[in-house]
Predict the 3D structure of the following.
Amino acid sequence: MAKAQGFIDSATLYQIFITLTGDRKHPEGWSDWDKSTALSATIALIGRKEFRVAPGVGVSGAASGSYEQLTRALSDMEAIDHRIPSRKSMNNALAATSAWAAQHDAELRDLLSRSLQDRDNFIPWLEWSVGHSWEEHSMRLYGLFDETLIPLIASLLGQTEGHMGMLHRASRDAILLSRYAGLAKDGNLPQAGTFPDLRDAFIISAFLRGRYHQLISRDQLIQHPIREGLPGVQVSPASAAFTVTPESMLASVILNSALLERKVENRITSWANNLNRAREAHLADRLPLGPPTGWAKKDWARVERVIKEGGIDTYPGWIDGIAAPAAVAITWDLVSNFFLNGWVAVGSDVAISAASLYAGVKGSASKLDNLAIRPIAERRARLQRMAKFPPGLVAPGP
């Protein structure tokens, strides 16, 4: 029987891109979304080859620039799913998304309002998106929001479809988007004119795509934290939340190694190459069992040997940073350790991930046998006690 396919949404992939293009001299510039989402997605991608980046809502153009470098690297290691859903599946998912949005219209508008007040994570994400990705996003997806969703977005925002059509045309205006990008990079997002309506349509479209992805994949799906709190998406009280500490340790090494590079293209190359080597060599399966904080000297010798044999690029002091208590790690070089600081790999009780992993299972628990997460979940010795914000939250899907 074929294994179920686990998916990571494209917004999460873009968050990895945001993290890799951050300012290495100012680690406080990385938000919790940057750190937790990039680490969670890296954990998923190194752990099982069944996890891939989810296919888009429809046909899209080619990526460009540094983002194209990242997607090409993932495509080369077969970590991106290029399949396009059938027209019937797409129509059914769109109809179900429309019904869901109509049922929860007030809640979606409230979520939009609350998101725009979140200056810790959402606003930094929005400013980066406008400043660095809107132009690429518009070229690749033929606008900043899905044209097929115009009637639904118009209804949710209390706008006419004609006005929304005008906004969609504006979202393809390269000169306008370039001007917005310059303002965003200076921290001056416009508060008047076309921008607020365009911004809201972009955000609502992202909410709707989150629900659409859940409906059309029916598989495991890691969603970007922008979609946390979407109304009407229930999480089973019987779901199991867990932290896989050896995998988070390996993911930390891969990310920190990349962030020590000065140039963006070198960071992307380092992250992708190390990720591919870890996948090909099945490094996650060869690490010692149990949390790294409890490993003996012989276990650390094994870790060094496995990582060296796998060809993973490391950085000075990496193994000391992994093994050290969080209080010590804080005093070290923040560039090479900020992913570890506060993470379970350095002894924290609570992981700081906002990504959710939905295992789309219907019927009896026996169907878990076919899930991509099963081989990881069964390695009980690898699972730490339940964490409040784990890298993965396994729960029945819609």
In short: The radius of gyration is 21 Å.
